[in-house]
């Protein structure tokens, strides 16, 4: 509505700029007077030039004569402006009143999208939570972090998402921040390592190895750090150590893990002897999946994130956990697009913390943050 | 809403520009004062509408509104605010809108400040200006509309080409456009004069300030662009004879010629046919430049657009305007009356010589720029015409011109005495010869040409200073009288002096920085020190940094010169959104010279390839351009040149006639 | 000086300057202009030390030898023939193997190409126009994705 109102005002102003001069009387004016003024000034200038030695006196006389001739010609040319014809003015007025709005509106009708509102980024991020897509959510967290870069939890949420999206460099930065603010734990350290590996096109660099090694020390049972450490050894060509690492890893497998065939293949490729295959609990994964795991494809990352989430869910279901862990689970489900699971988790969390108003409040705030209570 | 309002304002501007392009012209032909008079407010309104449209686009950039395709393609929310704003014209659509905005601005300025112009001339000028406006508004709406919407709107943009994310970009195109487009006024005046059939000294006085204004902005724009290329592209060069640079340089050469020939026309009523032709040529070259840059015929950093329909459209505009104005010229020029007579050795003669060399030089640049295109179109053979060609053609044509410059302002009108002028210039001549001798002695025989070049620069500077001193009779009359005479000289005389002096500065910078440049390309390991032209340069190591929308590897260097140390930080950057690398040079200025560092590839063990230059007096190249523009400004402030004739005088004159 | 003499003087001076300009342009066209060649065309040429050439093509994968000093070597190919190019200095930011490049310089007697300037694409979607045209002519034009593999 406001748009059409503004359009009407603009159009009216445009028409008025044509109509207004037409309605006013023109004062007498003729072109010759302007010329006369210029030539007078030139005559004076010749005097100044003579004074400054710019022109010889004899030449100056000739120049004066020249200018005087021009002056005479200009004076003689005086031609009065014709009276303004009423018909002509009416014709122009009609053009202004009809043609200008018609041309403008017709063209705009063909080109414009009057019903499509502006979408400035900040306003979109402020829209009620939950209405946005994944990108909006990420952007919202990013903006939040831009304002408060010391929000460790924010970095922690964002880091695995970056990794999954293939924004490895951002993931490295996010994990670093999370480590700095939240302290070291195995999960963050191995996330950092994995991000570095991805950023380097699959190469396990020294920096990544260091992160994985720390992660392994903190949680010797975790598979990811050991997997990548073994891969690093393979890449470095430390055959014996690599075989030992892969064998160790394979030995800890329960069977059916997606990386197991890859580890076995590595051992064989390095010239070692693969440990006897344990009976898979589930049908073995396809070979394609295994290769994808090695090359860190997007699918694999998705699977890995989902794996982590389901581990967390299982643990919380069976052993319970802190309210923060429940919140993290809710957010993770939301990020994965599984709103129902998130809602489910929220319900379970409320149940688990039935007598704790503070925890209830935090769960509620997470709910509204991820847009569950709409 | 603002997006759509901006779009509508643009469409409405077109509708109103159509009125401006026809009605005042018809009014002038019928000598109907009221109808002519609508030109002024309409020109103002068109400017406001295009301005509103431009402002709407800018707001969309500032607010990162990615529902506009143009914003999505050229912006990013993480970009610093200054580059969000400059991003508006860092792309094809936005830069064309800026082009049109400046075109409308100039016609509004004529409407507002052209009070002394005869009404029918003013109405015709504004109509002609509106023809150009209509052509480019249609071009924008038909092929390059910045208000195309995108639905659904993405949440993040694709970012601006990182080479263009620089403070240079914020300033360079607007300056250049004010220059380019400003010549449209000279063009409109020329065409209007041909239509009106009145071309005389008064016309030249009215057109000169506009030309001067456009010229001074173009000078600054070119200098800015050159400095930007110098520090941003990381090659240490400041002029590449790239077709796009030539596209802005040709109107400058023609415009400089026009400035000079208009003096003759104003003062002596001579060279009228030539001046009109030059006015048309200058703007035609501006249009040609726009075509070359915008059509994608040339591929370079500047060619945002490679859509063939755009090229064809601009080519159409080019043909209609250039062809049309030349046809009009051929038809009407013969009715011009020949003007004042003058001898070959005279101020007029000197200005003719100036025009001759400038247009010949401009023609060689034109040939060098267009020849590869024509040859490829005709035979399919691809060639590149680069610096060697221009050095051999443009250079020799400039030398006699530069030698003649100090003589010009000293010669009398109508008939001059070359010998007398030479006598007055003896101080300058001696200064120049001494310079040649000293430089040749210091630098050795190998730099004889450089010594001559620097001598020529000194000749220009000393010659420029001589002129006002001689006029004030310094040394020949009492000191007080001389000072009074000096102060009493018209400002335009100082403008001329500054302009010619600056030419000497620029020449000095060009010759000294290219002949005495030191260059070293070395592999440096951390801790290593090299010497270059009196500076000690120590490589301290590489540091990684993260900027708002890029990551960079910075080489930290310590440079010591004359006991003073400074840190220099050249870098290699990667812009995250486009994953595009750029090289950031580090520059340390000492006096008028600069030490220039840029980084190459990393080698084993933390070593890196470093390119270091020492460029003596290189700053003079751009300082010269700034002083040149300053000279233009001083001239512009001269009372006589203030837009139009003196108003009170006009009143008096008409009063006297009616009495 | 009579009016006629005066006019003749002007015409004489104008004619002389224009003749100089035209002469300079023709002289410069002769040997200051660089012709654009593809590696296949270069293979059939006899080296001429006075002739500047712009060599356009793709940087052959795996051919870049950055060496230990500031001189780099790489091969430029049009997928039919390839020429070894040596260049002293800093390669442009966008120089990459598998990407378009234009090198300007002189063909050496030993059949290698000594470049004094190297230009690479200016942005992601830009391939020097001459290179794109030349490759298209030889039906070797792929999208840049295929080239980088």
Summarize the structure.
The complex is a heterotrimer of chains A (374), B (659) and C (149). Chain A is mainly alpha-helical and 374 residues long.
Tell me what the structure shows.
The complex is a heterotrimer of chains A (374), B (659) and C (149). Chain A is mainly alpha-helical and 374 residues long. The two termini of chain A are 29 Å apart. Chain A contains 18 helices and no strands. Helices cover 73% and strands 0% of the residues of chain A. Chain A folds into two domains: 2-111, no CATH class; 134-369, Alpha Horseshoe (Serine Threonine Protein Phosphatase 5, Tetratricopeptide repeat). By secondary structure, chain B is α+β, with helices and mostly antiparallel strands. Chain B folds into four domains: 1-160, no CATH class; 166-345, Four Helix Bundle (Hemerythrin (Met), subunit A) (Up-down Bundle); 405-516 and 620-629, no CATH class; 518-615, no CATH class. Chain B has helices at 2-30, 33-37, 39-62, 69-74, 81-86, 92-113, 119-143, 167-196, 201-232, 243-268, 272-295, 308-332, 347-379, 387-404, 418-424, 426-443, 448-471, 479-488, 491-515, 619-636, 647-658; strands at residues 383-385, 518-524, 529-532, 535-546, 550-561, 564-568, 571-575, 580-584, 586-590, 593-602, 608-615. In chain B, a hairpin with a 5-residue loop joins strand 10 and strand 11 (608-615). Chain C folds into two domains: 1-31; 35-148, Beta Barrel (OB fold (Dihydrolipoamide Acetyltransferase, E2P)). Chain C is 32% helix and 28% strand. Chain C is built from four helices and six strands. A five-stranded mixed barrel of chain C has the order 2-3-4-6-5. Chain C starts with a helix and ends with a helix.
SSE diagram, text form:
The complex is a heterotrimer of chains A (about 375), B (about 650) and C (about 150).
Chain A: H1 2-23, H2 31-51, H3 57-77, H4 86-111, H5 121-126, H6 134-147, H7 152-165, H8 168-182, H9 186-199, H10 206-218, H11 223-236, H12 239-251, H13 260-269, H14 287-295, H15 298-319, H16 323-335, H17 339-352, H18 357-369
Chain B: H1 2-30, H2 33-37, H3 39-62, H4 69-74, H5 81-86, H6 92-113, H7 119-143, H8 167-196, H9 201-232, H10 243-268, H11 272-295, H12 308-332, H13 347-379, E1 383-385, H14 387-404, H15 418-424, H16 426-443, H17 448-471, H18 479-488, H19 491-515, E2 518-524, E3 529-532, E4 535-546, E5 550-561, E6 564-568, E7 571-575, E8 580-584, E9 586-590, E10 593-602, E11 608-615, H20 619-636, H21 647-658
Antiparallel strand pairs in B: 2-11, 3-4, 4-5, 5-6, 5-7, 7-8, 9-10, 10-11
Helix pairs in contact in B: 1-3, 1-7, 3-6, 6-7, 6-8, 7-8, 7-12, 8-9, 8-11, 9-10, 9-20, 10-11, 10-13, 11-12, 13-14, 16-17, 17-19, 19-20
Chain C: H1 3-31, E1 33-37, H2 39-43, E2 53-59, E3 71-77, E4 82-88, E5 100-107, E6 113-120, H3 129-137, H4 144-148
Parallel strand pairs in C: 1-2, 4-6
Antiparallel strand pairs in C: 2-3, 2-5, 3-4, 5-6
């Amino acid at each position: 509505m406001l748009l059409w109102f503004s359009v009407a005002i603009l159009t009216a102003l445009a028409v008025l700029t044509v109509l207004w001069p037409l309605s006013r009387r023109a004062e007498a004016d003729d072109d010759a007077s302007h010329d006369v003024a210029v030539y007078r000034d030139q005559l004076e200038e010749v005097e100044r030039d003579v004074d400054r030695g710019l022109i010889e006196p004899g030449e100056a006389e000739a120049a004066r004569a020249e200018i005087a001739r021009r002056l005479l010609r200009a004076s003689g040319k005086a031609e009065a402006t014709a009276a303004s014809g009423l018909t002509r003015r009416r014709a122009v007025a009609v053009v202004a009143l009809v043609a200008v709005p018609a041309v403008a509106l017709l063209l705009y009708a063909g080109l414009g999208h009057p019903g499509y509102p502006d979408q400035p980024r900040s306003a979109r991020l402020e829209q009620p939570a939950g209405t946005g897509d994944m990108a909006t959510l990420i952007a919202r967290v990013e903006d939040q972090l831009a304002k408060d870069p010391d929000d460790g939890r924010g970095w922690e949420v964002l880091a695995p998402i970056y990794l999954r999206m293939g924004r490895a460099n951002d993931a490295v930065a996010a994990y670093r921040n999370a480590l700095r603010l939240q302290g070291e734990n195995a999960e963050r350290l191995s996330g950092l390592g994995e991000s570095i590996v991805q950023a380097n096109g699959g190469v396990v660099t020294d920096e990544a190895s260091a992160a994985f090694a720390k992660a392994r020390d903190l949680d010797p049972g975790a598979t990811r750090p050991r997997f990548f450490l073994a891969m690093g050894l393979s890449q470095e060509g430390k055959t014996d150590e690599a075989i030992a690492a892969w064998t160790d890893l394979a030995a800890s497998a329960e069977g059916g893990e997606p990386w197991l065939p890859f580890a076995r293949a590595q051992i064989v490729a390095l010239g070692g002897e693969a440990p006897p295959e344990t009976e898979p609990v589930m049908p073995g994964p396809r070979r394609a999946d295994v290769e994808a795991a090695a090359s860190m494809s997007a699918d694999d990352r998705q699977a890995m994130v989902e794996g982590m989430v389901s581990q967390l869910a299982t643990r919380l279901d069976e052993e319970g956990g802190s309210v923060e862990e429940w919140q993290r689970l809710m957010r993770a489900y939301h990020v994965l697009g599984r709103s129902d699971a998130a809602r489910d988790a929220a319900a379970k969390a409320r149940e688990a913390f039935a007598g704790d108003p503070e925890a209830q409040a935090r769960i509620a705030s997470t709910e509204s943050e991820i847009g569950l209570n709409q | 809403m603002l997006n759509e309002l901006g779009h509508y304002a643009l469409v409405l501007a077109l509708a109103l520009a159509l009125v401006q392009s026809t009605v005042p012209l018809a009014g002038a032909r019928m000598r109907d004062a009221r109808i002519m008079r609508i030109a002024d407010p309409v020109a103002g309104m068109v400017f406001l509408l295009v301005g509103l449209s431009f402002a709407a686009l800018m707001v969309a950039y500032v607010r990162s509104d990615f529902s506009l395709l143009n914003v999505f393609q050229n912006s990013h929310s993480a970009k610093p605010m200054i580059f969000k704003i400059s991003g508006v014209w860092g792309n094809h659509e936005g830069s064309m809108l800026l082009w049109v905005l400046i075109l409308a601005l100039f016609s509004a300025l004529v409407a507002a400040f052209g009070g002394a112009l005869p009404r029918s001339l003013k109405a015709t000028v504004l109509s002609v200006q509106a023809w150009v406006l209509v052509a480019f508004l249609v071009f924008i709406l038909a092929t390059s509309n910045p208000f195309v919407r995108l639905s659904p709107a993405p949440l993040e943009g694709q970012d601006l080409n990182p080479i263009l994310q620089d403070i240079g970009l914020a300033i360079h195109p607007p300056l250049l456009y004010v220059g380019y487009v400003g010549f449209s006024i000279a063009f409109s005046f020329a065409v209007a004069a041909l239509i009106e059939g009145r071309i005389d000294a008064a016309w030249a006085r009215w057109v000169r300030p506009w030309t001067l204004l456009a010229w001074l902005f173009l000078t600054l724009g070119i200098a800015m662009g050159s400095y930007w290329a110098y520090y941003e592209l990381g090659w240490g060069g400041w002029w590449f004879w790239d077709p796009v640079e030539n596209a802005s340089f040709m109107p400058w050469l023609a415009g400089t010629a026009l400035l000079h020939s208009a003096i003759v026309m104003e003062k002596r009523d001579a060279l009228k046919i030539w001046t009109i032709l030059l006015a048309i040529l200058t703007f035609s070259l501006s249009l040609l430049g726009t075509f070359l840059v915008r059509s994608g015929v040339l591929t370079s950093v500047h060619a945002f657009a490679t859509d063939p329909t755009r090229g064809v459209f601009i080519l159409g505009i080019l043909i209609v305007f250039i062809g049309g104005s030349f046809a009009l010229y051929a038809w009407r020029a013969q009715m011009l009356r020949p003007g004042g007579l003058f001898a070959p050795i005279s101020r007029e003669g000197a200005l003719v010589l100036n025009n001759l060399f400038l247009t010949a030089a401009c023609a060689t640049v034109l040939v060098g720029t267009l020849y590869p295109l024509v040859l490829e179109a005709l035979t399919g053979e691809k060639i590149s015409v680069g610096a060697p060609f221009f050095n051999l053609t443009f250079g020799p044509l400039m030398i006699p011109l530069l030698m003649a410059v100090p003589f010009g302002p000293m010669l009398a009108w109508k008939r001059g005495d070359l010998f007398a002028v030479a006598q007055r210039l003896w101080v300058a001549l001696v200064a120049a010869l001494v310079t040649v001798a000293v430089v040749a002695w210091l630098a050795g025989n190998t730099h004889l040409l450089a010594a001559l070049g620097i001598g020529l620069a000194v000749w220009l500077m000393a010659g420029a200073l001589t002129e006002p001193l001689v006029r004030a009779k310094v040394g020949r009359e009492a000191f007080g009288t001389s000072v009074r005479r000096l102060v009493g000289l018209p400002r335009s005389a100082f403008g001329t002096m500054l302009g010619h002096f600056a030419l000497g500065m620029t020449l000095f910078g060009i010759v000294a920085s290219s002949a005495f440049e030191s260059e070293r390309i070395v592999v440096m390991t951390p801790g290593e020190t090299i010497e270059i032209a009196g500076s000690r340069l120590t490589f301290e190591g590489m540091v990684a940094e993260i900027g708002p929308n890029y990551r960079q590897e910075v080489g930290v260097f310590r440079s010591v010169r004359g006991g003073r140390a400074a840190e220099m930080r050249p870098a290699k950057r990667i812009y995250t959104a486009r994953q595009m690398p750029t090289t950031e040079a580090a520059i340390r200025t000492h006096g008028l010279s600069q030490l220039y560092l840029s980084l190459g590839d990393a080698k084993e063990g933390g070593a890196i390839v470093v390119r270091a230059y020492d460029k003596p007096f290189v700053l003079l190249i751009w300082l010269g351009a700034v002083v040149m523009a300053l000279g233009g400004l001083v001239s512009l402030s001269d009372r006589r040149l203030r837009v139009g004739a003196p108003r009170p005088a006009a009143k008096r004159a008409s009063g006297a006639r009616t009495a | 000086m009579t009016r006629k003499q005066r006019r003749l003087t002007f015409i004489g001076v104008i004619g002389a300057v224009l003749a100089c300009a035209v002469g300079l342009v023709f002289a410069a066209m002769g040997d200051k202009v660089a012709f654009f060649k593809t590696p296949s065309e270069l293979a059939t040429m006899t080296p001429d030390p006075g002739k500047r050439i712009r060599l356009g093509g793709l940087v052959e994968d795996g051919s870049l030898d950055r060496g230990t000093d500031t001189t780099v070597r790489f091969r430029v190919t049009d997928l039919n023939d390839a020429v070894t190019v040596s260049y002293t200095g800093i390669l442009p930011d966008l120089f990459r193997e598998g990407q378009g490049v234009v090198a300007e310089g002189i063909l050496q007697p030993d059949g290698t190409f000594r470049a004094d300037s190297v230009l690479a694409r200016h942005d992601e979607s830009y391939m020097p126009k001459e290179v794109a045209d030349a490759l298209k002519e030889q039906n070797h034009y792929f999208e840049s994705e295929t080239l980088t593999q």
